[in-house]
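Hey, I was hoping to borrow your eyes for a little while. I've been puzzling over a protein and I'd love to understand its fold better. The fold is given in discrete form, as structure tokens running alongside the sequence. I'd be grateful if you could look everything over and explain what you see. No rush at all, and the record is pasted right below.
>
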Amino acid sequence: MLSMTTVGLLLTGVALLLTGALLSLALAGNRRASGWVSVAFVGAAALPLWAVVIRTFAGSVDRPDTLLFLPGIGAGLTIAVDPLSAVFLAITSTIALLTTLYSVQYMDRFPDDTVAKYYPVLQLLFVGIIGVVVTVDFLFFLVFWELMTLSSFFLVIYERENRQSQRAGLKYFVINQAAAFGMIAAALVLWTRSDSFDFLALRDALGEILASEPLLGHLVLLLLFLGFATKGGILPMGSWLPDAYPAAPSGATAAFGGTMTKLGVYGILRVFLHLLPASPATTIWGFVIAVAGLGSLFVGTLTALKQDDAKRLMSFHVIGQVGYMFFAIGIGLALLRTDPILGTLGLLAGVFHMLNHSLYK
């Protein structure tokens, strides 16, 4: 069983965020009070989450622990924290505190009665991100993925009287839901071969499909790739980003650029490094990921240079920088089988740039 210390710390962090969301909703008539309560609870939640990060990198990596199991479909809310999860927990807890703190003064420009649509939803966004990175069951992974998507959607349409925000929100929702449906279809294909949504079972199922039905196996990988590339903002699937970025309040925008788009990088690493068995498919998809990253790198960066709106400039900059991450990780995956040292350096370069970008973004 996973140590109760790790589970307890994670649940404490999530409980604090949910409590903060409820209290900030109750205090929504006073935007400053709602904001400072949110800062207090997000900051308090960051402490146990960082404790999990430190514990993990100190070498305490435990077996998964299932908090809820659905035997009829072979799914369970199974929690596990490995170094990859810990990196994203560190990013999320840090960016969550900084963006919430920044929001207190920024939200003064909006009426008191509108903050009920901001601070509670922002904290639900952080809960969704945490759930994605600590869940090792694909069904619940998708549940938290959808929580993240819906929360961010409501942040994009925060100014509901603004038609531009409405259009940006609709575009964001349609593109990301289409990508999510593809991920669901991929998960169902794997589930039919394993009768389980557990990541380890899906890894075995994916290996069997690639060996017996390679076209189907590569279709599954394509659907997963498109889902993660869309969330990461990789072009052309990430065309939602330049519209959604300016539409949301700036605190939410920082959360999008600093954490949410990085979940696309997390998904690529989790699936193509951990779930995809080492095979020629790893090399093929490494090059696919690298090429997609290279395209976004150039298009995003060059388009950013032509912008006269700061938020749109930053949105294209995010597209370009996530392109760098995909390019490095893709090259790492492509070389991992033939040159493990260079492959590992490529993967580390992608993760390092992701950390760097999250902090300065």
Summary: The chain has a mean pLDDT of 92. The first helix runs from residue 4 to 26. The radius of gyration is 20 Å.
